[in-house]
Amino acid sequence: MTDRIALYLGLFLAALIAADIALNGGGVLVFLARKFMHLMDWVEFWR
Fold it and tell me: What is the pTM of this model?
């Protein structure tokens, strides 16, 4: 991955996070964090 692609990807993710906070109060981030924690519990179980 080149530096230019990484920069654009980082800016895109930052814009999505800012839009979520501005429009939904961060609800999508909380939902994704909970789903990620559930995934980690499931992976830990199968370990």
Answer: 0.72
